[in-house]
User: What shape does this take?
Amino acid sequence: MKNVKEIEYTIEKENWEKLLDEAFKKNVKNAKIDGFRKGHVTKELYIKKFGIESLYRDAMDAGLDDAFKSVMEANKDLVPVCEPSVDVKEIDEKHIKYVFTIITKPEVKLGKYTKLGVKKEEAKVSKEELAEEIENLRNRFAEIVVKKSGKVEEKNTAVIDFEGYVDGKKLEGGTGENYPLEIGSHTFIPGFEEALVGMGIEETKEINLKFPENYTEELKNKDVTFKVTVHEIKERVLPELNKEFFEDLGYKDVKDEKEFEAKVKESIKDRKNAQNEDKYINDCLEAAVKDMKVEVNHEIIHDEIHRMMHQMEDQMRMQGLSLEQYLEFTHSTIQDLEAQMHGEAENRVKTRFLLEAVAEKEKIEISDKDADKEAQRLAENYGMTKEDLITQFGGIEMVKYDLKMRKAIEIVKGE
Assistant: This one.
């Protein structure tokens, strides 16, 4: 491919000898030769015993960084878009010849990228959606109260003692005291919660069930008996649609139910408009990507997959989960994850190349002043200092790049 450059770089004579000396000093510390203490063997004797080839790997690694820097300084027009690879073409006691493979941005031929014929969906709110949203809001502010009498009903919380028995023996892990169980939460096996409906306070009951097919190997399809006692029943009492409730939601200007419904409807519509805007942008970008021509190296996609993998690890770490645990839970492998991410990674790369090409063609430039102003705006949004924001972005140039990409998106989505 045209964007793949192979560049050779040779280290020889005194410079290579210095690297071999460094490798010897490192390796001799652990060298065991009869009659000598560790670290006190001459280089000549070491080479006679182990061969000079034993120093090549460490010498090669030691010279790699400087070799790559020299290559990049001599080829400043080359801008790698993914991690360069390196091979050793030749190596002996007199020299080493590296071959660096550098992949630059592939050629992008833009197709149609404005007035793409993509339509934005209009946000509409149905009566059912409005009623569901109001119910959700009321549930958020519901008060949990203890029922002084009555029976267990759907959506009540029953505080229970329970003991499970399989084959006449107490079930390990199948016992609980004062356990709060919300009816309808499907926390227990099918049939358990349903059997509690209609039970009264301090009533005891035996429930005969069967473990489902998808349960653990030792228990699936087995008969089980639970002895259950209900000690307390709690119910959710939803707030009335009154001024006090409206104020709790932050709607201080709302006076009655009609105004409240209008406010909630507006909130749902705003949320839908934001979702529709995101979908519209994605659809526009997808259409523009389909109409452009670019051949993306598999190395670039592989690099993007690794970036996505690191993002996923960071997100899981915040939830207290490691990648190894996730793979164990999902019965999958790193290779499975990489295969799943391939399509999205390729789309991300192509979209990035599209926007960069649009920015170049439309001559989008971001001034230092614009970048500084944007950094300040973002810092205020995230509640941090401008300096910290710029650091997290990776420098002011990355703020400029991000702003340039968003301006390119505005051109693609048009309107």
